[in-house]
Amino acid sequence: MPAFAPAQDVTEAALKAAYIFNFLVYSEWPADALASNAPLGICVAADNALADTVQNELKGRTVRAHPLSISRNSSPASTARGCNLLYLSGGSLSSTMQSIQSLRDAPVLTISDVEGFAEGGGITQFYFEHGRLKFIINMAALKRSRLQISARLLAIAKRI
Length: 160
Known about the structure:
With 160 residues, the protein is an alpha/beta fold. It has one domain (12-21, 32-159): 3-Layer(aba) Sandwich (Rossmann fold). It is 31% helix and 26% strand. It has an eight-stranded mixed beta sheet. Helix 1 crosses helix 2. 35% of the residues are buried.
């Protein structure tokens, strides 16, 4: 009789960290925004569980010869100084959108789980549907940022 091993539970933070890593792998920054071999900065604001998981899972990794640099509780004002990807969580939509206002045309991949983030001008929004983590990409915000996201990610995204 075969033995069945129980499925390993995956936390929401681990799932989001995996998505963040894939966004890094399947995205390209303009040459003037990310010099060759410069660190690729990940900033996580207002989500300690995700910051811990990103730190544990992604520390020491590289993406296309860029070592990953991970910051927690970064203020959006500091993103011009080293953050290529900014994850914001919690708070109201208005405060979240106000936090990224200065990044509107900057080559910073903004991601949030705040309802309405993508519709409000953020680039990527995580949401759950039928128990599965999915994401929305705001194509106009992506274009303004001058970032390029692989067709592989765009194919599985809800695009607005």
